[in-house]
Design goal:
Blueprint (H helix, E strand, L loop, with lengths): L2 E10 L2 E11 L4 E6 L5 H9 L5 E7 L2 E2 L5 H7 L1 E4 L11 H8 L7 H7 L2 H4 L11 H13 L5 E5 L7 H18 L2 E5 L3 H5 L4 E6 L2 E7 L5 H7 L2
Parallel strand pairs: 3-8, 3-9, 6-7, 7-8
Antiparallel strand pairs: 1-2, 1-4, 4-5, 9-10
Helix pairs in contact: 3-6, 6-7
Length: 228
């Protein structure tokens, strides 16, 4: 088991957002984290990586308890996080964005470039600002994949994208999971698109885990209840 999350409560100030969370993540597995806006999906992800600290319980990675880890510690542990906003440095070239992602391992730059889709490989010297929204997300994903993480946590990687662009993003994530055997926990509002690549799904509703199981087996009424 790569990751085990056993959280009693996640709180915002004094209010309990989500309680009784128990998740186990295996290598090479994609977990969809679903629920309405404000249900606590992002707070769960941020609790795991130490950005949200108002919670109690245990998070265990490789039999090691982690709590409020520093960014360098996360990278050492093989954990990467992609936030929903500002995923790339738009005033810098595509190549320089990739250089930043491998700053401590510059020899990894050719590997990072090779991970890019072909249409972006030919635009390495262009500013990231000229890329489409979907292409920026593909670049952002490449930046975190370049460090060869074992676990990635993605907060709405398809936000504001068309269905076609979202499908491309999610299939790219799936291909990297298959290629590297890393694991992914993905918060996303494009439910149906995400469920096509996910192995299992966790649904948060009314502050509790309403479902945890096979992605293909989510009850239809529950699925419609969380659809954006």
């Amino acid at each position: 088991m790569l990751l085990k999350v056993a959280i009693n409560e996640i709180r915002y100030q004094r209010a309990v957002i989500v309680s009784d969370i128990n998740i186990e993540v295996s290598a090479g597995e994609i977990i969809a984290i679903l629920g309405r806006n404000g249900s606590g999906k992002s707070s769960l992800i941020k609790s795991i990586i130490g950005m949200h600290t108002n919670w109690d319980g245990n998070i265990i990675l490789d039999d090691r308890v982690i709590q409020a880890p520093e960014p360098d510690q996360l990278k050492t542990l093989g954990v990467s996080y992609l936030p929903q906003v500002d995923p790339v440095f738009e005033k810098m070239s595509v190549r320089d964005n990739l250089k930043i992602s491998v700053l401590k391992q510059p020899a990894q730059l050719p590997y990072a470039i090779d991970l890019l889709p072909d249409r972006i490989k030919g635009r390495l010297n262009e500013n990231a600002s000229v890329l489409s929204g979907g292409e920026k997300q593909l670049l952002a994903l490449t930046m975190i994949f370049a460090s060869q993480p074992r676990l990635v946590l993605l907060d709405e990687p398809c936000a504001s994208l068309s269905t076609t662009a979202a499908e491309e993003i999610l299939q790219h994530i799936k291909s990297m999971v298959v290629k590297t055997n890393m694991s992914a926990m993905i918060v996303e509002q494009k439910v149906h698109e995400l469920l096509t690549i996910a192995d299992r799904a966790l649904v948060i509703s009314d502050g509790l885990i309403a479902y945890m199981g096979e992605a293909a087996s989510i009850p239809k009424d529950l699925n419609m209840g969380i659809e954006s």
